[in-house]
């Protein structure tokens, strides 16, 4: 489960190895809350525990770091 490094803040951005057959996406975790965002286009896929306000903050981070996240996806998933 590779974690994307150098993204500031309280969240962990990561992928699952068995998810590489799905469209590009990223999982985000903080404490016991988890969500999943599609990357093309950037859209919420699943949410477990995050408030709408926090989801908006996560979405903004993903927009700002989209190239870095996609590059990490390609490095890991090919």
Report on the structure:
This protein has 78 residues and is an alpha+beta fold. The chain has one domain (12-77). It contains 2 helices and 4 strands. The protein has helices at residues 52-64, 66-77, and strands spanning 12-14, 25-30, 33-39, 42-48. The protein has a 4-stranded antiparallel beta sheet with strand order 1-2-3-4. The longest helix has 13 residues, at 52-64.
Q: What portion of the residues fall into strands of 2 or more residues?
A: 25-35%
Residue share in helices? 25-40%
Our Rg estimate from Cα atoms comes to: 11 Å
Number of H- or I-type helical stretches: 2
The coarse overall form would be: globular
Structural class: alpha+beta
Strand arrangement, major sheet: 1-2-3-4
Low-confidence runs = none
Average pLDDT across residues?
Answer: 94
Alpha-carbon distance between the two ends: 15 Å
Count of DSSP E strands?
A: 4
The main pleated sheet reads as: 4 strands, antiparallel
The string of secondary-structure elements, in order, is EEEEHH
Number of domains: 1
What is the gist of this entry?
The chain has 78 residues and is α+β, with helices and mostly antiparallel strands. The protein has 2 helices and 4 strands. It has a 4-stranded antiparallel β-sheet with strand order 1-2-3-4.
């Amino acid at each position: 489960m590779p974690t994307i490094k150098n993204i500031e803040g309280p969240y962990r951005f990561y992928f699952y190895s068995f998810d590489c057959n799905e469209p590009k996406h990223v999982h985000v975790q903080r404490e016991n809350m988890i969500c999943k965002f599609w990357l093309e286009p950037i859209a919420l896929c699943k949410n477990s525990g995050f408030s709408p306000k926090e989801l908006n903050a996560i979405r903004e981070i993903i927009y700002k770091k989209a190239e870095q996240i996609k590059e990490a996806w390609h490095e890991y998933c090919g």
